[in-house]
Design a protein that fits this description.
two-stranded antiparallel sheet
Length: about 60
């Protein structure tokens, strides 16, 4: 990853940690064994990414 991508990923992670309720919205998370679906509720009808970063990290993965 380039430096600016690392900074963007870190910022996206920080923002997700400030919005823990997004863990309940359905989202894909990248795990060691592939992609895993997390959450219970369908996402709102927007183009916004909920619950994970662009590269697939989500808080639930680490905890």
């Amino acid at each position: 990853m380039r430096t600016w991508e690392v900074c963007r990923e870190a910022e996206e992670r920080r923002q997700l940690l400030c919005r823990p309720w997004e863990e309940e919205i359905l989202h894909w998370s990248r795990q060691e064994d592939g992609w895993v679906l997390h959450g219970k509720y369908p996402p709102p009808d927007t183009r916004w990414r909920y619950g994970s970063t662009k590269w697939g990290w989500c808080p639930r993965r680490d905890g």
